[in-house]
Specification:
The chain is of the alpha/beta class. About 45% of the residues lie in helices and about 20% in strands.
Length: about 300
C-alpha cells in the first residue's frame, strides 16, 4: 500500500482516531466519565457502553490527548488519561487501582518507522501523534538512554507517511496497527514496548484511569462505584464479552480476528500491580532526569 493509499484509508476511516467530539457539559448530580475512543480500551469501554454493568455516570469518548485536556480543564470528574499526564498532575488526581493500559513486551501499537537507524536520529524531525504524550516521551527517553540522541518532535493530527523518509514517524494506537504490515516492509520498525521491556525488565504503562481529588473528596462513594465498575468491565470484556470486543474491534479496523486476539491477549496488559508501579516510577524518574516533567 502506498503512502497515498494509507492517507486515503485514514481519511475515510475518521472514526479510527479522530471522531467528531465536543467538550462535555456537566449535568448536576451526574459524574462525567471520559473513556478512550481507540480500540485498545475496548475491553473496558464496551461492557459499559452496552449496559452490561450499571454505571451512574455520563460518559464521553475521545482520544487520550483530548481526555488529558478535559481532565486539566476539570470538564471530567473521572477518566482515562495518559500516564505522562497523570505524572505531571498527580497532586490533583486520585489513581484508580488495579487498572491500566500497559505492555510487558511488544505492544504492537506504539511503533517508530524510519529509513534511518535509531542511532542516526540526533536532531532529526520525527512526526509524533498529538494524542499520546506517554509514547512521545517514551521514545525520547529510549533514544537518550541508548544512543544519546535527542530528536525534534513534530506533532501531527493526521500522519505524514513521508516523514519516515525524512526523519521518523511515530504511530500510536489504531493507526499503528493498521499501517504496520505495510510500513514495516519499507522502513526500520521499532516497537517501543519491546524496547522498554528489554532495557528495564519492567512493564510500560501508557495509560491509567483516575479522578479529580476534589471530586473524590466530595463524592467518595460515587468514585468507588465508578472505579469498581471500570475494573469489573475490564474483567468482563476479557472473558464473557471478549467475542463482542473482538467483533467491534474488527468492525472498526478490518483487522483479522487472529491479530486482534493477539493484541488483547498478548500485546496489551490491563492490570496495574507492583511491577507496573515500578515501571511507571522508573518512567517518571527518566522523564524528570531529562526535563520532560518539571523537577
Amino acid at each position: 500500500m502506498s503512502d497515498r493509499d494509507l492517507s486515503t484509508h485514514f481519511a475515510y476511516n475518521a472514526s479510527v482516531e479522530v471522531p467528531s467530539i465536543n467538550p462535555p457539559e456537566s449535568l448536576p448530580g451526574l459524574p462525567m466519565l471520559g473513556q478512550i475512543s481507540f480500540i485498545n480500551a475496548l475491553p473496558v469501554v464496551l461492557p459499559l457502553e452496552r449496559g452490561a454493568i450499571p454505571l451512574a455516570a455520563r460518559t464521553v469518548a475521545a482520544p487520550p490527548g483530548t481526555l488529558n485536556v478535559w481532565m486539566r480543564e476539570k470538564r471530567l470528574d473521572v477518566g482515562a488519561m495518559s500516564s505522562f499526564f497523570y505524572l505531571e498532575n498527580f497532586r490533583e488526581l486520585q489513581l484508580i487501582e488495579g487498572l491500566a493500559i500497559s505492555s510487558r513486551g511488544p505492544v504492537g501499537s506504539v511503533l517508530l518507522f524510519s529509513a534511518r537507524e535509531a542511532s542516526e536520529l540526533d536532531g532529526a524531525e520525527v512526526a509524533v501523534p498529538d494524542s499520546s504524550a506517554s509514547s512521545i516521551n517514551l521514545l525520547r527517553i529510549l533514544l537518550k538512554l541508548c544512543h544519546g540522541v535527542e530528536i525534534n518532535p513534530v506533532p501531527y493530527g493526521e500522519p505524514d507517511f513521508g516523514a519516515a523518509d525524512r526523519g521518523g514517524l511515530l504511530l500510536f494506537g489504531d493507526r499503528a496497527l493498521l499501517a504496520d504490515a505495510d510500513l514495516s516492509t519499507r522502513y526500520n520498525r521499532i516497537d517501543l514496548g519491546q524496547w522498554w521491556q528489554r532495557l528495564t525488565g519492567l512493564p510500560m504503562v501508557y495509560g491509567v484511569w483516575g479522578a479529580q481529588k476534589d471530586f473524590v473528596k466530595d463524592n467518595s462513594r460515587a468514585f468507588e462505584e465508578i472505579a469498581a465498575a471500570l475494573v469489573e468491565a475490564r474483567d468482563l470484556g476479557l472473558t464473557t464479552m471478549f467475542p463482542e470486543v473482538l467483533a467491534e474491534a474488527a468492525r472498526r479496523t478490518n483487522l483479522s480476528a487472529a491479530r486482534l486476539e493477539q493484541y488483547y491477549r498478548r500485546d496489551l496488559d490491563f492490570s496495574f500491580r507492583g511491577e507496573h508501579r515500578e515501571g511507571l516510577k522508573l518512567y517518571e524518574a527518566m522523564c524528570r532526569k531529562y526535563g520532560y516533567i518539571g523537577r
